[in-house]
Design brief:
Helices cover 24% and strands 29% of the residues. The protein has helices at residues 51-59, 107-117, 132-143, 149-156, 183-195, 218-228, 252-255, 264-291, 325-340, 372-380, and strands spanning 2-14, 21-23, 45-46, 49-50, 64-67, 91-93, 99-101, 120-125, 167-170, 207-214, 241-248, 298-306, 345-351, 361-364, 367-370, 387-393, 397-398, 406-407, 409-415, 421-427, 434-440, 445-454, 472-473, 477-480, 483-488, 492-500. The chain binds alpha-L-arabinofuranose.
Length: 501
């Protein structure tokens, strides 16, 4: 019997809804086909956005959406994507498959998508190949409410009212595809570019996000923080977030590995590499602490998820992959870890929302399926805007290879806005169930509602069989001597919502 102990009196911090954020890039079939099909499409749409996709995303309360990239962002020139569609420039998407980008999805369309989703907006600006003027004018175009050339242009293009930009990323991966800069050089570029990301609405300021490290590039974090945030104090208004990118490549960057064809060794490798995010967050946070003792700057994990070899027969530049129970575990573990570090992790964006990498939705023509990852987000949505509670779960190490051992269980617990205690647990064993005895200190347990996602590790949804992996009600628990006793099945993610008396 494994013990789970929850201390409701010990609140550890607020879980920003943005921790369950998403990312959509002009890459493969994410934006085009996956989200935007155009007003004239036979696929049911509202102003060009797929109704099935929007409806599914609304169900998981997507809190924030990042756009237009990714690597695409540092080659994107926003003026190409405004005005009458027939006049918009056609260009090559050099990063992703060399296909024609017709710019039919631009700023207005993105804002319309976020309106339909009811989510916050996270725009990623172009530092790599764009000018300061271009970035500054984009911000003016989107947010200025008054007499100005960009506000007039916006009105001319059919939108008199300004939009709200919640987050603005000043470049993406500027250590790589965003210009191959050194941290010192980027740090100075950041200082300059962010100056012109003007806040036209002091009551609703844009949160500026500085490009952070790739994986364990701690030197980047150190140099960028010291250039952009260290004393003198006037630098402290320069950034609200520092990004971090970490993908789970089961077999390493070169080989990656299949999304559906893997053995138990690779299963453990994947989960162990996923758990590494915790060490990354802690180490980067420790460096940030040197400069930012008050935790003014949040870690923004704005790209995370699995990255496999793309599906056979698909364009390698489109990064299309299937999504199995293994991905459900990856999502469950990541989201639990982000919750546990909510004092520093203020946003995280899974890559990517539809048809690219670890998607929550896949589409084929007019069909759409929900992936196992989608179902995890649906179970975890109760953590959004909740208070993290102190919790501990007893674990043992499991695995097949010394360097890829993982704890059998991984959990996080919060007090939700609905007043209930939300417990999410991932069982990392592909073949063993575990009995758990949960104690909620000084609390009488009332009604419990359980939801479980479980199946064989390779199980996934297809267009022929869209509900092979889906959540079910979980009733296999009892309350005994004031404790919550249940058995978590092998290879599963569980959500228990506990009402207290
Ligand atoms: O998500 C795919 C790509 O991964 C993004 O464009 C880039 O930022 C990262 O390298």
């Amino acid at each position: 019997m494994y013990k789970l102990v929850i201390n409701p009196e010990n609140k550890k911090g607020h879980i920003n809804p943005e921790i369950q954020g998403h990312f959509s890039e002009h890459l493969g079939r994410c934006i085009y086909e996956g989200i935007y099909v155009g007003e004239d499409s036979p696929i049911p749409n509202e102003n060009g956005m797929r109704k099935d996709v929007v409806e599914a995303l609304k169900e998981i309360n997507i809190p924030v959406l990042r756009w237009p990239g990714g690597c695409f962002a540092d080659e994107y020139h926003w003026k190409d994507g405004i005005g009458p569609k027939e006049n918009r420039k056609k260009m090559i998407n050099t990063h992703w498959g060399g296909v024609v980008e017709d710019n039919s999805f631009g700023t207005h369309e993105f804002m319309e998508l976020c309106r339909q989703l009811g989510c916050k907006t996270y725009i990623n600006g172009n530092v790599g190949s764009g000018t300061v003027q271009e970035m500054s004018e984009w911000v003016e175009y989107m947010t200025f409410d008054g007499v100005s050339p960009m506000a007039a242009l916006r009105e001319q293009n059919g939108h008199k009212e300004p939009w709200k930009v919640d987050y603005f990323g000043v470049g993406n991966e500027n250590w790589g595809c965003g210009g191959n800069m050194t941290p010192e050089f980027y740090g100075n570029m950041y200082r300059r570019y962010q100056t012109y990301v003007r806040n036209y609405h002091p009551d609703a300021p844009i949160q500026k996000i500085c490009c952070g490290a790739n994986v364990d590039d701690y030197n980047w974090t150190d140099k960028v923080m010291s250039t952009c945030f260290a004393a003198p104090a006037f630098l402290h208004g320069f950034m609200e977030g520092l990004s971090l990118h970490y993908y789970t490549h089961p077999e390493g960057w070169e080989i990656k590995g299949s999304s559906t064809d893997f053995d138990e060794k690779v299963w453990y490798k994947t989960l162990s590499k996923t758990m590494y995010i915790e060490e990354l967050i802690e180490h980067h946070a420790a460096i940030m602490d040197k400069y930012d003792k008050e935790h003014k700057v949040g870690i923004i994990v704005d790209e995370w998820g699995t990255w496999y070899t793309c599906e056979p027969g698909t364009n390698p530049g489109f990064l299309y992959q299937q999504n199995t129970m293994r991905d459900a575990l990856v999502a469950g573990i990541n989201l639990n870890i982000f919750n546990k570090h909510c004092d520093r992790v203020k946003m995280a964006n899974i890559a990517q929302m539809v048809n690219v990498l670890q998607s929550v939705l896949l589409t084929e023509g007019d069909k759409m399926i929900k992936t196992p990852t989608y179902h995890v987000f649906n179970m975890y949505k109760y953590h959004q805007d909740a208070e993290l509670l102190d919790s501990f779960i007893q674990t043992e190490k499991i695995g097949l290879e010394e360097q890829y051992m993982v704890p059998n269980l991984n959990e996080s617990v919060s007090l939700g806005k609905d007043g209930r205690i939300h417990i999410t647990i991932a069982n990392l064993s592909p073949d063993k169930s575990y009995e758990i005895e949960g104690t909620i200190n000084d609390t009488e347990i009332g009604i419990v509602e359980g939801t479980i996602l479980t199946n064989e590790m390779h199980a996934h949804n297809t267009f022929e069989n869209p509900n092979e992996v889906c959540t079910k009600e979980f009733k296999e628990y009892k309350i005994s001597n004031g404790k919550l006793v249940f058995t978590i099945p092998a290879c599963s993610v569980l959500h228990l919502a506990v009402s207290t008396q």
